Amino acid sequence: MAKHQTEYVTLVSSDGFEFKVTRSAACVAGAIKRMLDPSSNFKEAVENRCVFENINGVVLEKVCEYLYFNEKHRDSKDVPDPDIPPELCLELLMAADYLDV
Amino acid sequence: MIAGRGRQKIRPPRRGVHGEEIDFENTWAIIASAFREIHTKNASKLSYEELYRHAYRIVLKKKGEDLYRRVRDFEHEWLSNEVRGSIQALLTANLLASTQIIGGTTANERRTAGERFMKGLKQAWEDHQVCMAMLADVLMYMDRVYCTDHRRPSIYSTSMVLFRDDILSSVSSEEDSPPILVLLNHVILEQIRMERDGDVIEKALIKSCVYMLEALYDGQIETEGQRLYVTSFEEDFLNSSRDFYRAEAELMLRDSDAGAYCRHTRRRIYEEQDRCRSTLSDTTTPKIEKVVEDELIKNRIHELIEMESGVRFMIDNDRLEELSLIYDLNARVDNKKTELMRAIQKRVVEMGTDVNNAAIAASQVQSALSEGADKGKGAVQEKNLNQQTIAALKWVEDVLQLKDKFDEIWRESFGSDQPLQTALTRSFADFINASTFPRSSEYISLFIDENMKKGIKGKTENEIDLVLEKAIVLLRYVQDKDLFERYYKKHLCRRLLMQKSISNDVEKQMISRMKIELGNNFTMKLEAMFKDMTISEELTSGYKAHVAQLGDPDPKRIELGINVLTSMTWPLESMGSSGDNEEGKKLKCVFPPAIERIKKGFEKYYGEKHSGRTLTWLAAMGSADIKAVFPKVPQKDGSLKERRHELNVSTYGMVILLLFNDLPADQFLTFEEIQARTNIPKSDLIRNLQSLAVASKTRILMKDPMSKDISETDRFSFNEGFQGKFHRIKVGVVTSGNKVESDRERKETEKKNDDSRAFCIEAAVVRIMKQRKELSHQQLVAETLNQLAPQFKPDVSMIKKRVESLIEREYLERIEGASVDSYRYLA
């Protein structure tokens, strides 16, 4: 139950890809933020590792990209649209809905 | 837009929304068991992602409604079955007893029971909050999608409502016992009562219960006024506090003194503020303050101030700190501080009346004495007047002391509060101008006189300033400024003519102060008096030079110092003795030839300078220095020695003495002879002879028979054997100083004053009517009063009389047929 707050957390896709992202970037997503909330102390918070059963590696990679992108441009205006391949659009939308990005 | 791109192919998601069917019941079972784990604090075994995904799926399957209901039911059951039981277990008999006011349980037992109860409740509440936060996290997707779409309150607030209904509003197993919420109120109130009685209680615990009440709302609407805290607790709290403080106020008023009461009240207010901060809610602070203020101050302030140890006692004993407390307390509930003001005013008037009465008593005791003593009546009356003068000075000192005292109280205790100062001023004016005490003007003028003559001797400028300032302060209170002016003029006149004043500068300073305070009009005549003095000096020296020029070196020359006074500005009538009016005409004193010659000379000189002016000689006011040689007669020590003395006597005295110059040594003059040859008014003659022939130190004349009183048959001869210790001898004439007037004098002064007032009123009326042409009686009176306010406060009946007189003399006329009495000005 060690409540150590690591700088990086691991996001795992349904097909086993692991992404190490900074905690602050990961918490841009509402669902991940709650998942890692130390006060609720779910399994994810204890292990600093989130497994997403319904998101595959390709999509998760894009999600991670976006998380960083969002964090980077958090306070700025006139941000250019992120580069999103059209073939991933629908899946990304679903993931965004799921993760509350 | 994407479709428009044509070439590119959008891959369908691998698992479609409609993909795998899920079993709602199974999924719910998983979720429900997980919730149970959460409630038992085993969350770390659970995967958030998994639960979240299940809830997500259910909502995606349009089963949000079911999920929502299930969760609610789950919580309801959990609360009613698990939590409520544990809370009710805490409801011991002790606790219930306290609500039903059954004796038999000690305070300590009740208190521990109460604390345990609150602790349990607080624990349950906190657990509930934490768990529901976690549940809400897990069900985030439901909240986000289902609840917003269907306008349902979020699952978190729903569960809070559940807590209120299932726990707080639940009735414990026993019959007729109140709901938990009511119990909680009782417990908290009791704890607060304990604290008020001096116990130490667990503030943090109560505070967390209050937090709970604040977080919950009474109905569905979440507004400030609907907080459970406000609807259920606060009112109880305020009511019970009101009862508590009402009882306390009664007890305190009965058992302790006002100072203690004030201190206690202030402490209570601080305590309540503190309690709101540390134990209850800040929103209650103003409300409970008001309760305390109402009960301890507002409803009690009157009794408090009237207490034996109330304001009166504090003033008398200079309890500045307590007065300041009272002031603070009263200021809290009443911006105007009415009660305090009333009490203070009353006390000022009381004390002022005491001072007045003391002065009156002092003068009356003396007059009673003088009536008792027949013999030597004149002397006793003299003494009596002196006593009265002392009484007058004492009165002024007392009033000043009173003023100082209240000023200090005002400054130290009342924070220099403006309205209170006005009130104080009004009270001072009230008693100084009280109709039962008409002498204030005279006394103040006497006070200044005394200081001008003696008081300021050897004082620094600052001290003099202080004295003058004091006089002005008193003057400010006086309403009948014209009466004061009359007295002041009279006293100033004496000072100037007899050169009693210590410093002309100070006199002028005083006048310029009065000028600032009362305006030009007031001091015009006073200044004119000074001017006359200066002109007179010039005249005297001018005349001296004139005589020297004439070159008539008469060895027996008499030097003349003269004061020419404008008769309008100087209150000469009050200087002269009243006796000279007895025969209806003024008697002219017959001067000896030597003097008569000089008099003529000066009249001529003056006539050359100012034509058309008449000089009237006022012998009663002058003084003369006479060089007298007493022949060699055997002294007590047997030596034969010629003695020379310089005698300073009044002009009349000089005239009398000069009669004896031509008289052989063994001859005498009778009283009648003296009177016939000098034409000096009888009363003045008596007084002068008294000082020349009766007073032992200045017995220049011998009287036969030797007695203390002068009678008309007495005979006088020159006292050749006169002996004086000093070369220069001052023959004082009785009543040359400024003293309180005798009753007769006062009546005269008042009459004169009334006469001059009559003129003032007429002038004012005419001025007003000239401007307004037509005016109703009421308005005219009001305006007249207004105009004359800086000078004096005229009688309404007097105004009426003056108006009548003006109508008679055809300055005004009545307007016929006007609905109210009105006048018209006749040009």
Count of the domains of chain A:
1
CATH class of chain A: Alpha Beta
Individual helix count of chain B:
31
Percentage of residues assigned to helices of chain B:
55-70%
- N-to-C terminal Cα separation of chain B, in Å? 103 Å
> Mind telling me which CATH architecture of the largest domain in chain B this is?
Up-down Bundle
Average pLDDT for all residues of chain A: 84
Family (chain A): Belongs to the SKP1 family.
Protein name (chain A): Elongin-C
Domain SKP1 component POZ (chain A): 8-71
GO biological process, one term (chain A): ubiquitin-dependent protein catabolic process
Protein architecture, described:
The complex is a heterodimer of chains A (101) and B (827). Chain A is α+β, with helices and mostly antiparallel strands and 101 residues long. Chain A has one domain: Potassium Channel Kv1.1, Chain A. Chain A is built from 5 helices and 3 strands. In chain A, strands 2-1-3 form a 3-stranded mixed β-sheet. In chain A, a hairpin with a 5-residue loop joins strand 1 and strand 2. In chain A, helix 4 packs across helix 5. Chain B contains 31 helices and 9 strands. In chain B, helix 5 crosses helix 8 and helix 16 packs antiparallel against helix 17. The longest helix of chain B has 37 residues. Chain B is elongated and about 160 Å long. The N terminus of chain B is likely disordered. At the A-B interface, helix 2, helix 3 and helix 5 of A face helix 2, helix 5 and helix 6 of B. Chain A: Pfam families: Skp1_POZ (PF03931). Chain A: It is found in: Nucleus.
